[in-house]
Amino acid sequence: MPGIGVAIGLERVLLALEDQGVQLPLKKRESIFIATAGDDVAGDLNREAVRLLLELRRSDYPAEKDLLGRSLKSQMKQAGRIGASYVIILGTNELQRGTVLLRDMKKGEQLEISRERLFEYLKAIV
């Protein structure tokens, strides 16, 4: 069976680039987990969380959201399991105020930030 093929040897190319001092941009973006807290009888929290999730993904932030309706404690454990760097917590009070809680999982610090300033803040820290 006749055939034609081409192989470039990706490992060899990477080694050659390394030998020449070429730095490849391999930085992985830090991931964000969205957690919801509180009674969501009308589904407003979930709708806003999904809206925020889509906005984050459109802005090239790796983002996940709880889909099982777990407690906040379970959602925080899940965020830790998947290695999320930040958790955006959206509760009924935050929804009414137009804010979110942003928790830095590495430092254990948390701050309340307005929904409008969230992406500006994320751009500065992520």
TrEMBL record:
Which keywords accompany this UniProt record?
Aminoacyl-tRNA synthetase, ATP-binding, Cytoplasm, Ligase, Nucleotide-binding
Q: One of this protein's Pfam families, by short name? A: HGTP_anticodon
Q: A single GO molecular function, which one?
A: histidine-tRNA ligase activity
SUPFAM superfamilies in the record: Class II aaRS ABD-related (SSF52954)
Please name the GO terms of the biological process aspect recorded for this protein, alphabetically.
tRNA aminoacylation for protein translation
Q: What is its EC number?
A: 6.1.1.21
Q: Where is the Anticodon-binding domain?
A: 34-124
Q: Which residues form a coiled coil?
A: none
Matching entries from PANTHER family are given as: HISTIDINE--TRNA LIGASE, HISTIDYL-TRNA SYNTHETASE
Top-level division of the source organism's lineage: Bacteria
Family of this protein: Belongs to the class-II aminoacyl-tRNA synthetase family.
Q: Which InterPro entries match?
A: Anticodon-bd (IPR004154), Anticodon-bd_dom_sf (IPR036621), HisRS_anticodon (IPR033656)
Q: What class of enzyme is it?
A: ligase
Protein name in the entry: Histidine--tRNA ligase
